[in-house]
Design a protein that fits this description.
The chain has 384 residues and is of the alpha/beta class. It folds into 2 domains: 177 residues, Rossmann fold; 101 residues, Rossmann fold (3-Layer(aba) Sandwich). Helix content is 44%, strand content 19%. The protein is built from 12 helices and 15 strands. The strands form 4 sheets. A 5-stranded parallel sheet has the order 2-1-3-4-5. The chain has a 4-stranded parallel sheet with strand order 7-6-8-9, with helices on one face. Helix 2 links the parallel strand 1 and strand 2. Helix 6 crosses helix 9. The radius of gyration is 27 Å and the shape is elongated.
Length: 384
């Protein structure tokens, strides 16, 4: 009887193994990739593709296949490539990279596109934005403000084409702030606008009035008081304790410099910004420190960068790390999903811990749990 049971069990294992092989062959995960593999953005497209291939090697699962197609950063060529992928029976695509290349993809009915853009407005129903959007960043800033009991925050938003994205992020994150201002990034106009926002003229006049009052007084300590007043630039506090500047690069530096000019120092008021991917030039601007911002996981980015550099001999952008993570995310969802319709998994609530941070998936949207950093005295510090 025991021999019969052993034989029966052996036959069962063989059948199960053969069934598993047959099942895996029939259920290969086919992923399209739309990236600029030629033209001026070809270097970015190639590093994204290399990152995806790195992820496939690290996952060690032969059931995932990728099918790259060139977009040339052109909406019409993107559509043509997408239709080719659709004919191949592919229903899930990583890409395109740029927002403009999404415009015509509503014509592709049977594919879900996981774009690398961080723009979330006016997307077709078959497009999921996976970039680090304003809502994710503002959720992280909100956490910092609440943990530090910072209650009077103002928002400075440039008059640029992404101001509506910022306003959408404000609404979705439900971040509390005192007042919101838009500004022109033109340097000839910027300082005057910051002067008005910070009541610089009134605070400057307060200083002149106090100097005049002391000069005309009989105060025995008049000389010492005047000596102290001469070292001041203004008298009177601004009506906020933190400022969020929705800007980056040189424009951000101009805004913070204008705040300094109006006697609003980052050493006394929290200056928080967005869209920072560890700009090294900001580390050198010590007079603008401290500055705070949300971003992706720096340690993981450095590890990925070193690994990528050793393999390809050049440094990747953060979009490469995002592409790497998307392969891991798709693989994770495939393990959770009993059917091959992985694209439907983006409609239900899921979380995935990637290299960038934690992905939060729900209702065909992706948000990210980010880290929060401080730049001070030329050094970067992770706060959480």
């Amino acid at each position: 009887m025991n021999k019969f049971l052993k034989l029966l069990f052996s036959v069962f294992l063989v059948l199960l193994f053969e069934t598993s092989i047959s099942y895996s062959e029939e259920t290969r995960i086919k992923i399209g990739v739309l990236a600029p593999l030629s033209g001026e953005n070809a270097p970015l497209g190639k590093q994204i593709l290399n990152s995806i291939r790195m992820a496939l090697i690290d996952i060690k699962n032969n059931n995932i296949e990728i099918y790259p197609k060139d977009t040339r950063s052109n909406p019409e060529i993107t559509l043509r490539s997408a239709l080719e992928l659709e004919k191949m029976g592919i229903s899930l695509v990583i890409g395109p990279v740029f927002h403009k290349n999404l415009l015509l993809l509503d014509k592709v009915k049977n594919i879900t596109f996981i774009s690398l853009t961080n723009k979330t407005l006016d997307l077709h129903n078959n497009i999921i934005s996976s970039g680090i959007n304003s809502t994710s960043q503002l959720n992280t800033i909100k956490k910092f403000l609440e943990e530090n009991e910072i209650k009077k925050t103002i928002f400075l938003i440039p008059n640029l084409n992404y101001d509506l994205e910022i306003k959408k992020g404000i609404k979705e994150s439900k971040i509390k702030f005192f007042k919101q201002y838009n500004y022109d990034i033109d340097p000839t106009k910027l300082t005057k606008q910051i002067e008005k926002i910070t009541n610089y003229g009134i605070r400057k006049q307060n200083l002149y009035d106090e100097i005049s009052r002391i000069e005309n007084s009989d105060d025995p300590n008049k000389e010492k008081i005047l000596e102290k007043l001469e070292k001041k630039y203004t008298i009177g506090n601004v009506k906020f304790d933190s400022v969020i500047v929705a800007d980056f690069d040189e424009s951000l530096k101009s805004v913070v410099t204008s705040l300094l000019y109006t006697d609003v120092s980052p050493k006394k008021k929290y200056v928080i910004t967005l869209n920072q991917w560890f700009d090294e030039s900001l580390l050198k601007e010590k007079n603008l420190h401290p500055i705070y911002y949300p971003s992706i996981n720096k340690k993981n980015l450095d590890e990925f960068t070193n690994k990528f550099f050793k393999k390809f001999n050049y440094k990747p952008s953060y979009l490469s790390l995002l592409s790497y993570d998307l392969i891991g995310l798709i693989y994770y969802l495939s393990l959770k999903n009993e059917t091959l319709e992985i694209n439907k998994s983006f409609k239900t609530q899921n979380t995935f811990k990637g290299k960038i941070g934690v992905f939060e998936i729900k209702d065909n949207k992706i948000h990210h749990q980010l880290n929060f950093y401080e730049i001070n005295n030329g050094k970067l510090r992770e706060i959480f």
